[in-house]
Structures are given as structure tokens and as C-alpha cells.
Design a protein that fits this description.
With 345 residues, the protein is α/β, with parallel strands linked by helices. The chain has two domains: 204 residues, Rossmann fold (3-Layer(aba) Sandwich), CATH 3.40.50; 95 residues, Alpha-Beta Complex (UDP-galactose 4-epimerase, domain 1). Helices cover 41% and strands 17% of the residues. The strands form three sheets. It has a seven-stranded parallel β-sheet, sandwiched between helices. A three-stranded mixed β-sheet has the order 7-9-11. Strands 8-12 form a two-stranded parallel sheet. It binds 2'deoxy-thymidine-5'-diphospho-alpha-D-glucose (DAU).
């Protein structure tokens, strides 16, 4: 297939910007149009290397702004949509649980309305494994109920309901992906892996929530991007696909690998009372059989690529230091973890 025009919303963020670069390489006849609100987590530096690419175009704006969204569909002749736009951080959502509704729920509805009005050929909505809630044993299947337990995951579940309704009621050709915890280059340093790498690199303490035994299911960002691409090309309309299930690790194990790789001692670990409270999901795990059946297979070994990711951050301080120096970042860290964390904890 060729000559598609993809609208990638949230394309300046971590997974979105990796996806944009991945798609332009994968499909040399397609154009990619990014719409991103450039909130604190969206960073044009994530695609600075594309500024001369004639197949790439960037618009600053919010998905909840129907004038902007409809204008882009009209001017660019959008044929396909991939929606990454979201307030994506659990910790920020704990502080401001209402704020995320505008993008994660209302914005999704605006986007679906535009896809309906302009007759999009395919819309992929990028969701999360967190919509299922936590699971103590076994793995979630796509048919399991959505039982989110935190403001962020509840918002993502609300967004999914908008997608589902537009598919059923209006026939918008949607596919949903539910990815697990993702890691790799260009991840905003508020998430566990880059937060701990950048702190430990500076000999600052790393705050482990509770006992650090919470388990996450990890996937490299390029494997996640490939899953989304396969869902776009081969997914069945109206269906959801899990993307994950590769490796489960307790947070404390990941913390120790980061410290060891950086040559730091475990005295940098600081166990703190869990700021996510009772809503902190103990374990996520998804069954990816369904997406494997349409061609997805992960290619990136976790341990090798975690170390590669640590090295990427070590070698790209020019990318993350301005973020750490920004007042938004410092305000969030001080507000969430308490003023002590900025120096030592
Ligand atoms: O599962 C997919 C989800 O993964 C995505 O939908 C979310 O957008 C993404 O943020 C991520 O959610 P988590 O809350 O699992 O990711 P995070 O990196 O924030 O935290 C991972 C685990 O590490 C979690 O159990 C909380 C813990 N943690 C995190 C931070 C930032 C700590 O112990 N200390 C910390 O300072």
C-alpha cells in the first residue's frame, strides 16, 4: 500500500516520535503529519532530524481543538490516524486527576468525529494495558473487562469507550492497541527507567515506591511501534490488540540493573511510602497471542536493550538536561516527591 497520509497525534512524545521515524523508514511512499500540543512531555527535539524531510509535517495544537483537527484533515488529505496524544503519567494524574480528561477522553471524541467526517480509512487508538487494572496471576486477554484503578488508566479507558462508540454507532474504522510498559531512547525522564537513570547518573537518590516488588511487563519502544504498525495494516476493524507480554520484572530489579550499569552503589536506593496509594497496580501482564496471529513478534531482548537505553541517556545528556532544568519539571518533582528530592531526598 502506498501514498497514505498519516495523522500522528502526540507525535512529539516518546512512543509517538519513535513511531514517526519508524513509519517514515518503513513506508517510503507515505507522508506523516504530526499534531502535538507540545505540553511538557512533547519535545520538537525528538524529531529535529526530520526537519528537512519533505514527507514530514508538524502542527502545534491540541486534539480537543476541533477547528485545528478538522483543518489538518482538510488541508493535508489525511487518510489514516494514529492517536498517541495523551496525558500519560500516573504520578501527575495523582496530583491533578481531572486535568487529563480533556485530552484522554474529550480529545479522543473530537478526533473520532473528524475521522468520521473526513472518511478516514483506518484509525488506530493507542491505549494501555492499565485499562484492565492489576492482575495477580495469569495474563489479560482482550476480552477481559476494563477495570482501571487510577485516574490515568480510568481516563484511558474512557477514551477507549469513545473509540468503541464511534466504531459501533458510526462505523468509524477503528483499531485499539493496549501496550505495556515501554522503554527506550527519548522517554521523558519522569518515568521509572529514565527518571532513575538521570538521577543516579548525577549521584542523586532514586525513590522506589513501597517495597519495589511491583511487577511491570516491559517492551522496547520499537517493538511497541511495530505492533501499532501491524495493527494499522492488519488489525480487524473494531478490535483491540494487546502488545506486550515479553518480560516481567519487579521495579527493584530494574533499579539495581540501572545502578550497576552506571557503576553506582545501592546506597542510592531510597524506599519511600507509596505515593500512588491503594490505586498502585501491583502487577500488569498481557497475553499477546492475538497480535502475534497477525504478524507481530518482538525483536528486542530486554536486558540488552535496557543497557543500550542506559548508554543512550549517558551519551545524550544534552537532550535531557534542559528538561531537568525546566521549571515545570522541578515544580512537579518537588510537589510530588517533596522538596528534598531535588537535592538528595
Ligand atoms: O503499562 C503501560 C503504562 O506504563 C503506560 O500506559 C503509562 O503511560 C506509563 O507511564 C507506564 O505506567 P507506569 O505507572 O507503570 O510507569 P512508571 O514508569 O511511572 O512506573 C513504573 C513502576 O515504577 C510503577 O510501579 C511505579 C514505580 N516507580 C515509578 C517512579 C516514577 C517508582 O517506584 N518510583 C518512581 O519514582
Amino acid at each position: 500500500m502506498s501514498n497514505r497520509v498519516l495523522l500522528v497525534t502526540g507525535g512529539a512524545g516518546f512512543i509517538g516520535s519513535n513511531f514517526v521515524r519508524y513509519w517514515l523508514d518503513r513506508c517510503p511512499n507515505d507522508r506523516v503529519v504530526v499534531l502535538d500540543a507540545l505540553t511538557y512531555a512533547g519535545n520538537p527535539a525528538n524529531f529535529a532530524m526530520l526537519s528537512d524531510n519533505p514527507r514530514f509535517r508538524f502542527y502545534a495544537g491540541r486534539i480537543e481543538d476541533s477547528t485545528v483537527v478538522n483543518g489538518i484533515f482538510r488541508v493535508e488529505g489525511i487518510t489514516h490516524v494514529v492517536n498517541f496524544a495523551a496525558e500519560s503519567h500516573n504520578d501527575r494524574s495523582m496530583l491533578e486527576p481531572t486535568r487529563l480528561i480533556a485530552t484522554n477522553v474529550a480529545g479522543v471524541s473530537v478526533l473520532m468525529e473528524a475521522a468520521k467526517a473526513f472518511g478516514s480509512e483506518r484509525v488506530v487508538h493507542v491505549s494501555t494495558d492499565e485499562v484492565y487494572g492489576e492482575i495477580q496471576t495469569g495474563k489479560f486477554k482482550e476480552t477481559d473487562p476494563l477495570l482501571p484503578r487510577q485516574p490515568y488508566s480510568a481516563g484511558k479507558a474512557g477514551g477507549e469507550m469513545q473509540v468503541r462508540a464511534h466504531n459501533i454507532a458510526y462505523g468509524v474504522p477503528t483499531v485499539v492497541t493496549r501496550g505495556c510498559n515501554t522503554f527506550g531512547p527519548y522517554q521523558f525522564p519522569e518515568k521509572l527507567i529514565p527518571f532513575f537513570i538521570t538521577r543516579a547518573f548525577q549521584d542523586k537518590k532514586v525513590p522506589v515506591y513501597g517495597d519495589g516488588q511491583q511487577i511491570r511487563d516491559w517492551i522496547h519502544v520499537l517493538d511497541h511501534c511495530e505492533g501499532i504498525a501491524i495493527a494499522l495494516e492488519n488489525g480487524t476493524i473494531g478490535e483491540a490488540y494487546n502488545i506486550g507480554g515479553i518480560v516481567e520484572r519487579p521495579n527493584i530489579d530494574i533499579t539495581k540493573i540501572i545502578l550497576q550499569t552506571l557503576g553506582k552503589g545501592e546506597e542510592l536506593i531510597k524506599y519511600i511510602p507509596d505515593p500512588r496509594g491503594k490505586g498502585h497496580d501491583q502487577r500488569y501482564a498481557v497475553d499477546s497471542t492475538k497480535i502475534a496471529a497477525i504478524g507481530w513478534a518482538p525483536k528486542h531482548d530486554f536486558d540488552t536493550h535496557l543497557i543500550e537505553t542506559i548508554h543512550w541517556y549517558v551519551n545524550n545528556r544534552a537532550w535531557w538536561q534542559p528538561i531537568l532544568d525546566s521549571s515545570d519539571y522541578q515544580t512537579f518533582v518537588n510537589r510530588y516527591y517533596g522538596p528534598g528530592l531535588g537535592s538528595d531526598l
